Amino acid sequence: MPNLFDHVPLSEQAKAELAPTGVLRAGVNMGNPLLVTGRTADGGPDGVSPDMARAIAVRLGVPVVLVPFASPAVLGDAVDTDAWDIALIGAEPQRAEFIEFSPPYVEIEATYLVPPGSPIQALAEVDQPGVRIAVSGRSAYGLWLERNIQHATLHRADSPEAAVRLFLDERLDALASLRPALLDDTTSLPGARVLDGQFASVQQAIGTSKKNPAGAAFLRVFIEEAKAVGFVAGLIEQRGLVGRLAVAPPA
Q: Which of 129, 144, 203, 211 gets the highest tally of CB atoms within 10 A of its CB?
């Protein structure tokens, strides 16, 4: 990958913070099929998020090692274990207590799927007494629901796939997830509907430890430049994700 970001300022301190071992270790959330869309020839993760990590490593002038994590919860929890130097993960207030985030580089709509025959027609009708929502616990959108749902009941699963099974097995009233995933789910759930609009926009960013202020400052500038020059838009187009991922607006 050519270095497109030579002009992005990089201090020796930032490089030392982000690649203390001489290698950029990038934690990748394998649970988001929009951001990790495949595998490389050697079996490593591939997609928009890995491409972002590779571009950052090129600017730092170091090799990159992609460290896979099964879920964003496990990835975020590893911030103090020295397992990664940067994390490609949804930026959420709960995580921001421990992780310093860049501005988002892409956004994904989060909404609900309701079963065939459901009386629920609009987003505002979901957060009502008696409504049971299946959700992947500690996902970015799940954390948003934990902060904002006032009347409905959240039923948490360990992964998006487990949330679908929970929704079906328990005959719940709504399934919360990312819109592209829910649209895929409708192909195997005849009569199910994805509600118009969004209850949240999941913002995917680059995180690093709060012990890395210079590294975090570099990441903020890098991400804004990657959006401004069309690099992120190009990755979305190359991966065939136009209409499923959107470039986040300038910070």
A: 144
